[in-house]
Amino acid sequence: MEKFVDEITRQATRHWTLAQPAVSAFIASVVRDFRDRDDVLQNVAVAVVESFHTYDSDSPFIPWAIGIARRQVGLYLRRRSRDPLVFDDDAVACLAIALHEEAQERSHALDFLQDCLGSLDGRAKKLIGLRYRDDMKPAAIATETDMTPNSVAKALQRLRDHLRGCIERKSLEASV
């Protein structure tokens, strides 16, 4: 039984790690005080772990976690109801929906980025790999590739522009 609990906790932690930036952004969009944000985020993390057994793995995790965050933010707002600048429940719901849509768009963009990276040729792939996988600066890449630092920087800028355009094209194609 102990191993089963550990695996559930491990899965909850893995999901939470990926969802935490989106949940944190949602909380920050509603809760102004940074100390209160940290408290609400911590309450959400605890609630996510405690209720993970109710999560349906066939549905996306981030909207589920944002649903928990909405309830925690609602509790926080009710405690702060005397503050005239507090959002009402409808405004919080609208923010949650908008954040979920933004998270989905970013997820699709990452999928498109993988496709676009796969279409790069040998030299372009090597430059991108050295810069972003190996975290090398243009001067170090120049030494590795017999290029000048300036030409590496320009090539990387052209590659970023190419990838951005590729992602935008794929996004347009997917929305049609």
Describe this structure in words.
The mean pLDDT is 83. By secondary structure, the chain is an all-alpha fold. The protein folds into two domains: 1-108, Rna Polymerase Sigma Factor, Chain: A (Orthogonal Bundle), CATH 1.10.1740; 119-176, Orthogonal Bundle (Arc Repressor Mutant, subunit A). The termini are far apart. It has helices at residues 2-30, 34-50, 61-79, 89-118, 122-133, 138-145, 149-175. Helix 5 (122-133) packs across helix 7. Keywords: Sigma factor, Transcription, Transcription regulation.
Features:
Rna Polymerase Sigma Factor, Chain: A; single chain; 0% strand; mainly alpha; 176 residues; 2 domains; 7 helices; Arc Repressor Mutant, subunit A
- Number of E-state strands: 0
Q: What is the name of the CATH class of the largest domain?
A: Mainly Alpha
What is the terminal separation in angstroms? 49 Å
Task: Output the helix-strand order.
Answer: HHHHHHH
Global outline:
elongated
User: In oligomeric terms, what are we looking at?
Assistant: single chain
The structural domain count equals: 2
Which second-level CATH architecture of the largest domain applies?
Answer: Orthogonal Bundle
What fraction of the residues are assigned to beta strands by DSSP? Answer: under 5%
Domain RNA polymerase sigma-70 region: 20-82
Organism: Novipirellula rosea
Protein name: Sigma-70 family RNA polymerase sigma factor
Domain RNA polymerase sigma factor 70 region 4 type: 113-163
